[in-house]
Amino acid sequence: RPTSEKPVMGGFDVPYFMLVVMLTLIGLVMLFSASYSSAYYYYGDATYFIWRQFLFAALGFVVMFIVMAIPYQILHKLAFPMLVTAAVLLVLVLFIGQTRNNAQRWIGIGEILTFQPSEIAKAAIIISFSSLAVRMGKRMKTFTYGVIPFLIIIGFFGFLLMQEPHLSATIIIAVTGIVIIF
Fold first, then answer.
1. Report field, pTM of the whole predicted structure over 0.85
2. pLDDT at residue 9 is higher than 90
3. Which end of the chain is more exposed for a tag (fewer CB within 10 A), N or C?
4. At a CB cut-off of 8 Å and minimum separation 6, what does 128 contact?
5. d(CA 107, CA 24)
6. 3-state secondary structure the chain
7. Mean per-residue pLDDT for 39-55?
8. Would the pLDDT of 101 be above 60?
9. What is the CA angle 35-37-40, rounded to 5?
């Protein structure tokens, strides 16, 4: 940890940013090529899905820049509250969640303002596991401190996600958590 009281921000990684932009553009092109006929048939506009996804991608870039502006020390302090919030939302979706295609994964008001708590859980796992790994320090090399607490958290989140059911989010969270542990 830095010894200074002032929060420290990292630099802007241009090659990584260009990679993200390139992958986003490739994804948009692939989406358009796979969906233009369906979009035209159902919505009368071949670009319906591409524009919608483009807006979500633009929103994602805005969120990325906002998160980049937050010093990591603040994220370090928010790690545990984020993990608890994600767990509460995953429990809440089981009781008040909206069901689509036999899966109860969404919380929201109506059809427009909906979100999946599993997306918050993914970010919470990344931030909280990273924070825990830093706090554990050399104890991360032991099975008792470096593996068991993390596996318990992964198991708890996996259990909640499988109640929805949401296998893909369960796999993503488990793999991401294990990679951070490693």
1. no
2. no
3. C
4. 79, 80, 82, 83, 153
5. 26
6. CCCCCCCCCCCCCHHHHHHHHHHHHHHHHHHHHHHHHHHHHHHCCCCHHHHHHHHHHHHHHHHHHHHHCCCHHHHHHHHHHHHHHHHHHHHHHHHHCEEECCEEEEEEECCCEEECHHHHHHHHHHHHHHHHHHHHHHHHHCHHHHCHHHHHHHHHHHHHHHHCCCHHHHHHHHHHHHHHHC
7. 89
8. yes
9. 105
Q: What's the pLDDT band for 1 if we cut at 50, 70, 90? A: low
Please give the pLDDT value at position 151.
95
Cα separation of 162 and 144, whole Å?
Answer: 26
Average pLDDT along the chain: 88
Structure tokens at 141: 């090399």
Rounded Cα distance between 98 and 169, Å, is: 17
Residue 69 corresponds to which tokens in the numbers above? 């502006």
- How far apart CA 78 and CA 177 sit, in angstroms, is 18
